[in-house]
Amino acid sequence: MIIFYDGYCPLCKTEMRHLQKRDKQGALTLVDIQTQEFAAQYPELDWHALNARIHGLLPDGTLITGLDVTHQAWKAVGVGWLYAPLRWPGIRIIADWCYLKFAKHRYTISYLLTGKKRTCDRCVPGDIQQESPSDANAALTKSTAGAEHIKNIESTKGKGGDSGR
After folding, report:
1. Residues 75-124: pLDDT tens digits?
2. Which string of b and e fits 33-50 if b means at least 16 CB within 10 Å?
3. 82 or 128: which carries more pLDDT confidence?
4. What is d(CA 31, CA 10) in angstroms, rounded to the nearest whole number?
5. Residue partners of 100: CB distance under 8 A and separation at least 6
6. SS3 letters across 125-151
7. Largest Cα–Cα distance in the chain?
8. Is 153 left (phi over 0), alpha (psi -120 to 50) or beta?
């Protein structure tokens, strides 16, 4: 599974470090969307959609977002049961709403919880806009269309190249 995350967010980076420590099987590829190389490696993906919330690309080419990514990522490293209740009907609706609020205000929340500010010069407070469902569907369509390209990139990385981790 490929996880596209915001490397400027202190909490996001912390979660990725914890996932990476537990990923003994190499099930995850972590991709920081804030790197200079991102646009060249994944030109078919909508950076703004990815920046609005975490995204993950499953091996079958399915693009998932938000807490679905979090649950699948932790499941891949053996502790999905911690996040499973967030995917239960009823709880899922509330959890997803809370996640969207978190994602929109993640820099402020990160600062309040960790005392660390985001690590970027070009970010502007409030620059993360809420996506409408139609925007999210358009991003999913665009991203899914590029899934084959991503699979090709990942398969060549596994052949003696750098895996990006």
Report:
1. 999 999 999 999 999 999 999 999 999 999 998 998 888 887 776 655 54
2. bbeeebeeebeebbeebb
3. 82
4. 15
5. 53, 66, 130
6. CCCCCCCCHHHHHHHHHHHHHCHHHHH
7. 45
8. alpha
Cα gap 108→9, rounded to integer Å: 9
According to DSSP, the β-strands at 63-65 and 2-5 are: unpaired
State how beta strands 55-57 and 2-5 pair: antiparallel
pLDDT tens-digit readout, 21-60: 999 999 999 999 999 899 999 999 999 999 999 999 999 9
Beta bridge partners of 56: 3, 64
CB atoms within 10 A of CB 87: 17
CA distance 66 to 102: 10
Tell me the C-alpha distance between 48 and 28, whole Å. 22
Predicted structure pTM score: 0.72
Q: Using only the alpha carbons of the chain, give its radius of gyration.
A: 15
First-to-final CA distance of the chain: 13
The answer to whether 3 and 54 are in contact (CB under 8 A) is yes
